[in-house]
Amino acid sequence: MSERFAPDNLEATLGRVLGIGVTLSTIALGAGLASALALGDSLLTMTLLTAGVVMLIATPVARVVISCLAYLRRRDWTFVVLTLIVLGELLASIVAAIRSRT
Amino acid sequence: MPVVSFALAAIIFVSGAAAGSVGALLGIGGGVFLVPLLNVALGLPLRNAAAISLTTVIATSSSVSAGRSGEHLINLRLGMLLEVATVAGSLLGGLTAHLFSEITLQRLFGIVTAVAAFAVLTRVHRRNVVRDESIDPGLLGGRYYEDESGGLVTYRVKRLPVGLLASFVAGNVSSLLGIGGGVLKVPALNAWCGIPMRVAAATSAFMIGVTATGGAIIYLGRGDLPPLAAAPAVLGVQLGSWAGLRLAHRLPAKWLKILLVVVLLLVAALMFVRSTR
After folding, report:
1. Around B266, how many Cα atoms within 13 Å sit in the side-chain half-sphere?
2. Which of B29, B60, B160, B185 would bridge B180 by S-S if both were Cys, CB 3.0 to 4.6 A apart?
3. Which residues of chain A does B222 touch, with a Cβ-Cβ cutoff of 8 Å?
4. ipTM given for this complex
5. How many beta-carbon pairs below 8 A join chains A and B?
């Protein structure tokens, strides 16, 4: 078996990143929902819900960043470039989103 | 921003649970059903429906991929290569998506999914895996342990351009239709690219999060994503993906493919009905 197919711990690392992101976001959104039911449209409700949504959307971005760093450490340049292209597009979306606000 | 009523929250929760389980079984985030449900059936504006749908797709992708890590079903190299095509598609989305009218787009989507359903149906009994460790999986292929085959199985990637095209189109229509595009990626990978059904589903589930993120960021920035609607979506997804991952282990690949055919035919019918409205 070549090295490529040796047990790949990148999958486990990325799984952990995605798991932590989606769990934190679920906790914040769940608490926000509870706060919305109990307190209505309060500052606490909006803070929790906004934090939850931002963490949810940031999770796939974090996954691409960590993949890129992992390929960089392995000096797997093809995949460093591929993940950088993906990251560049996600950053372009953030720039477009900020522009559309102003 | 629309007010999120209790009834709407309950419907989003159930839809999230459905999306999570279909995502775990088939690698499809369910956006293709959720958008018409929210938009046509519940009268939510399209931009809000698409934003909520993309959020559900992201939650499904993260939740399913996290729950699946350690099974070696996600083909990371293939996924990250296809993500580049998806990204290029969504970057060009603003330019190319307006080449067709909405009705033409729906008809094209209907035809594509109907053809995909037929292609998967003809291959229900054919497996893309071989139990031969001497076969070189190549640069993008892989090996994994499968209970159903009783050992380590190998697969090779064929017709890569078809997978790249499906990923490009998925990204292209993603923010417009509010979908992650798993409904295009999974049949393309399984029926044409030589990818085993379980790997196609796991790799698609992994990719749709990134496909949906670009659009979700834009909708969030424009204030089209009601944060309260994201809460029941994510809670539903967590429940659905938990159940779906447990069921996915027990179902043979043949049944996963039959389920995929049913879903694709439903999508095709839905698109044709919407295009005649």
Report:
1. 12
2. B29
3. 97, 100-101
4. 0.90
5. 159
What's the pLDDT tens digit per position in B196-243?
Answer: 999 999 999 999 999 899 889 888 988 889 899 889 999 999 999 999
**H/E element, B153:** strand B151-155
Q: How far apart are CA B109 and CA B105, in angstroms?
A: 6
Mean pLDDT for each 10-residue chunk of chain A (102 residues)?
Answer: 53 94 96 90 93 96 95 93 93 84 66
Residues B259 and A97: their CA atoms lie apart, in Å, by 37
Give the number of other CB atoms < 10 A from CB of residue B83: 25
State how far the Cα of B240 lies from the Cα of B275, in Å rounded to an integer.
Answer: 30
| Measured distance CA(B178)–CA(B121) in Å, rounded | 27
Say yes or no: A62 contacts chain B, CB-CB below 8 A.
Answer: no
Residues B171 and B88: beta-carbon distance below 8 Å: yes
User: Chain B interface, mutation test: which of A43, A53, A83, most B Cβ atoms within 10 Å?
Assistant: A53
Instruction: Tell me how close the Cα of B66 comes to any Cα of chain A, in angstroms.
Output: 4
Q: Do B222 and A101 touch (CB under 8 A)?
A: yes
CB contact under 8 A, B80 and A67: yes
**Residue B145 belongs to what H/E stretch?**
strand B142-146
- The amino acid that residue B126 corresponds to is R
Q: What is the per-residue DSSP string for B63-87?
A: HHHHHHTTS--S-HHHHHHHHHHHH
Cβ atoms within 10 Å of B161's Cβ, excluding its own: 11
Among candidate residues A12, A94, A43, the one with its CA nearest the CA of residue B76: A12
Q: Give chain A's end-to-end CA distance (angstroms, integer).
A: 55
